[in-house]
Amino acid sequence: MKKKSTSQSAFFNLRILTASMFCLLGIAVALFAQGNRTKQAQTSRSTAAHDAPGTQRPDIVQMVGPVMLTTDLRKLPYVPNEGESDGQRLTRYPHPRTTAPAPEIPSSPWLKDLLKNVFRSTPTMPGPLLTFDGINSSQSACGCLPPDTDGDVGPNHYVEGVNVVFRVYDKSGNPLTPPTTFNSFFSSLTGTPCANANDGDPFVFYDHQADRWVISDFAFPSFPGTSFFQCVGVSQSPDPVAGPWALYAIQVDPGNPTFLGDYPKMAMWNDGGTQNAYFLTMNLFSSPTTFNGVRAYALDRASMLTGGPANAIGFTVGLAGVGDSYSFVAANFRTGNPPPTGRDEMVLAIDSPGSGGVTLTQVHGRFFHVDFATPANSTFGAGANHTPNAEITVSGFTDAFDASFNTLLVPQQGTSQKLDTLGDKIMTPVVYQNLSGTESLWADHTIYTNAGGSGPMAVRWYQFDVTGGTFPATPVQQQTWNNGGDGLFRWMPSIAVDQNGNTAIGYSTSSSSIFPSIRYAGRLAGDPPGNLGQGEAIMTNGGGAETSGFGRWGDYTYTAIDPSNGMDFWHVNEYHVSTGNANWATKIGKFNFVGGGGTPTPTPTPAACSWSAGPDLPSAGTRLVGVFFPANGKFYAMGGRDVNNVEFTHPFEYDPVSNSWTTKSATYPDNHVNNMACSVLNDSGTDYIYCAGGSEFTGQTTSGHVFRYDPVADSITTVASNWPPGDAGTLPGGFTVFNNKLYTLGGFDIPNGIGTSQIWEFTPNPAGWVLKNATLPVPLGYIPTTTIGSLIYTGGGADITGGVLTDTQNSFVYDPGADSISTIAQIPTATSNTRAVNFCNLMYVLGGNFNAPENEVDIYDPVSNTWSIGTPFAIAGRNFAADTDGTNNIWKAGGYDSGLAIIASMEIFHCDVSPCGGPTPTPTVTPTPTVTPPPPTPTPRPTPTPRPRPTPYPRPTP
Q1: What is the mean pLDDT of residues 720-738?
Q2: Which residue from 163, 452, 458, 482 has the highest number of Cβ atoms inside 10 Å of its Cβ?
Q3: DSSP string across 46-61
């Protein structure tokens, strides 16, 4: 749009305004007239016929598999991916990679406001009911750009896929699994690239008719190359975490092994008869600049749902058949009635011409008829070239690339770097709905806001009436959605339709004055046609821009309907928390037309913190000590013994980045490595893990040895300063670090069968111990202990009398500066034999309980001197290795479970966004008037494992 001159008279401007208003009135009348012409449009049908069975030559391809994956996703070994790197996307015709100036919009502020007020109705679209953070770039196992954001919702889960990983959440946003690489998931598909060369473009969807999940990506060792496969997993139960899964692989095009299947998309179609398949479409490239056509497959859904061998029926549509189009999208059935018996699948596409600025007026429609009983009867499109069965005439549009064929056109706040529009293809999904006898396809894509290509990007959407299994001549309704011309760029759309025919589209927004953000708009089924009449709502405001010179963004998004109620829309999309190069994040949100959500805030919604399973320890073990080592960001399990009561000889290292354990080479100096006191101390500028005391199983003896482990060098050195009580038969009680000194509180005097009350202080340089004057008010062993600020806190601990352990609620605070101790509010539940950690300046006491191991998490606030109940972990236990980074993660591994079996299981408490917030007030010591004040009412949280009240229990081997 050209700028208006400001030299014209006010009278002339008024005349222009008056004329504009009459023009707008005329447009409005025309829109309503269009609504009255709907029935007429519906009767104007395409006359293209389906090709007769047996007139085409489909490929019949035997899929590799099935290979059954019976391992819980939380137990899968970590297999890394090389994955995609940021780079040029593959297009119908080669595109340049340059950043163009942003298109002009009206410069006069009053004119902008006038246009907004004239065109835009007051938005009534409800705000989100829920948002939570999905996978981000640091969790993606490859740091790829763009993220290829995709996901779907089921009755109990949300599954998200990005690049080369996927993750399962519950429907409150709590992660149930770590990010799982496709190399891990498909590793058993040996003999194919799916086993170890997965490269991304994931597609995840929920099959609502079968209550099953489908997860897919592509795999190849090199491009260009000769081995290109699509990998597909179909769950054999409703639970995507526990599985099992039937895994399959299929070559992209066996007749053309050099063809890569790029941008694969899937859909489910089931007419209740023979048209029952998972449909797969992909673009074919033999090099980054050589487009060869489109591949379309029908996969044998019925057999794959039962884990049986499966054939696929495929067609390759060459250049003569595709014309200027690519990126075919098959219709997906989700809400409403199933397709009538005998109804063929429908596939849509638009053109991506070889030059910019071309006005386009057609959407191409093809039928896919599949016959698994007689594969030769299958057909796709029309004739030997599989050309469209129908051309649907739509309002003119221009693909979102300029006359120079440049697609980096979306501006961002605070940077000159523009983003890719992907404005040359139908986006996923194409929605099929059979509602009250009317069959419809709903579709959307990104365009310029005018056919001349001089405005911001906008979302074009359609409803096509396909009742009776024929394509229409024109849409029932269509719109170019730009929210009344507010100047924002809208792109990367994804459409969904609920069970009542209400429609919503989620998409990205950006401009030179806002960061890329996530919004959605919608219409009720009864709204006037051709308009998202409920307006727009914000799901997430971005906090930064993407500065990579590749300008890649999204590649796709996904909007889906919750099968639980048929009304909730779930949308997943990319955004940035802060400006950077490929430091993207993803957000998952839920909304509906019933409402219930408040106005979203402009800041990203913090993710809920939750427990999820991690990989098993290298060996089941108990009485280990967990230590987080900040210098390398890794978690260590020190000492302990295995299920045969044989002490471990090497440390175990957990890497959060690879989500995997390693047994280190360093060797402990002796076998007194159960129940040690271990923490990080610094000596002469180098951090080490210091360990003091410990016991061995066979002789039931203790040691006062002190050694230090250097995780960087993977070496262990003995420190010539033993802990005195250890040499006299005592195990350390609680332990923690303050001011680069290790403190032990209490202990277990094994020969005498009693607890102790001494407090010892260790300094690393020069190495030495000091017995403090203060003592615990009562002797205790196995005390959960941690440091917050300048004070040391305890919660629980075991009374040991006559060799019998009884858990207590004793809770204390020790001031090492003043060498004084006092009582605090008692922990709500008696416990011992576990760790306390400082998480966000709160003391978290993790499970424990000697008599009946529990999964309760008790949280102490030193400022208010109160306790609450936190989110429980899954596997009740005690004597596990545990520690925290203090802000985002708590790790626990091994120990005894509720049946006192020694286990290898790991659990991770993770917050994608730390809940710590700003600085916490420094706690002060406030002694309670008695040792046993009444505990506060716990905050209601998920129910921990029930357990009996603690009772005296015979002491096992330490």
Answers
A1: 96
A2: 163
A3: --PPPPPTTSS--EEE
The token duo for 103 is 């298109």
How far apart, in Å, do the first and last CA atoms of the chain sit? 80
Which pair of structure tokens corresponds to residue 384?
């030997």
pLDDT at 137 over 60: yes
Gap between the Cα atoms of 783 and 492, Å rounded: 54
> Tell me, what DSSP letter sits at residue 114?
H
CB-CB contact of 767 with 708 (8 Å):
no
**Cα–Cα distance, 957 to 791 (Å, whole number):** 32
Surface-to-core class of residue 739, CB atoms within 10 Å of its CB (0-12 exposed, 13-18 middle, 19+ buried): exposed
The class level of CATH for 610-954 reads mainly beta
Structure-token pair, residue 179:
């990010």
pLDDT digits (tens, 9 = 90+) for 85-105: 555 578 877 765 544 444 433
User: Which region holds residue 156: left if phi is over 0, alpha if psi is between -120 and 50, else beta?
Assistant: alpha
Residues 295 and 277: their CA atoms lie apart, in Å, by 16
Number of Cβ within 10 Å of residue 648's Cβ equals 23
Residue 575 burial (CB count, 10 A): 25
* Integer Cα distance of 136 and 577 in angstroms: 10
Q: Which of 51, 56, 44, 57 is nearest to 344 (CA)?
A: 51
Torsion, CA 748, CA 753, CA 755, CA 759, rounded to 10: -50
Task: Give CATH for domain 59-591.
Answer: 2.130.10
Return the DSSP state at 674.
B
What is the strand order of the sheet 535-540 is part of?
Answer: 489-497, 503-511, 514-523, 535-540
The pair of structure tokens assigned to 209 is: 């008719």
Max mean pLDDT range (90-104, 349-363, 438-452): 349-363
- What percentage of residues in the chain have a pLDDT greater than 70? 85
In 3-state terms, what secondary structure has residue 774? Answer: coil
How much is the pLDDT for 142? 82
Instruction: Report CA dihedral (566, 572, 577, 579) to the nearest 10 degrees.
Output: -150
Closest CA to 490 of 462, 523, 456, 515: 456
CB atoms under 10 Å from CB of 23, counted, come to: 10
Comma-separated ranges of CATH 2.130.10 domains in the chain: 59-591
Q: Do 803 and 819 contact (CB within 8 A), yes or no?
A: no
Boundaries of CATH 2.120.10.80 in the chain? 610-954
**Which two tokens mark 800?**
């040991």
CB count within 10 Å of CB 917 equals: 9
Measured CA distances, 91 to 171, 262, 509 (Å): 36, 10, 23
